[in-house]
């Protein structure tokens, strides 16, 4: 299991809750999309693109969560542009991803 990293000030779990309650559009899209595998792969956080990841058929924009991830940005980046279910469940199966990233929901596969 990877060690946690030192988060910057105001980037802890309660700060993330405040961000999700801010009303800001964290999904990065104007409306819910039907996401193709090609679109998911394309949105991998490189070249200025957002980082999307899918979990149980739902796609989330994980870009806003990068500075808040306890394992660090590099660890979260492993999920960018692909399905993260196996990785996520292998690291922290007790975490409710939908509750944590619900405001980052982009669409379904």
Automatic annotation (TrEMBL):
Top-level lineage group: Eukaryota
The keyword NAD appears for this protein: no
Matches recorded under Gene3D superfamilies: Cytochrome b5-like heme/steroid binding domain
Record-linked Pfam families: Cyt-b5
Keyword Metal-binding: yes
Family annotation (InterPro entries): Cyt_B5-like_heme/steroid-bd, Cyt_B5-like_heme/steroid_sf, Cytochrome_b5/Flavoprotein_Rdt
Cytochrome b5 heme-binding domain residues: 41-109
Annotated GO MF terms: cytochrome-b5 reductase activity, acting on NAD(P)H; heme binding; metal ion binding
Keywords assigned by UniProt, alphabetized: Heme, Iron, Metal-binding
Gene Ontology CC: one annotated term: cytoplasm
Annotated protein name in UniProt: Cytochrome b5
Origin organism lineage: Eukaryota, Fungi, Dikarya, Ascomycota, Pezizomycotina
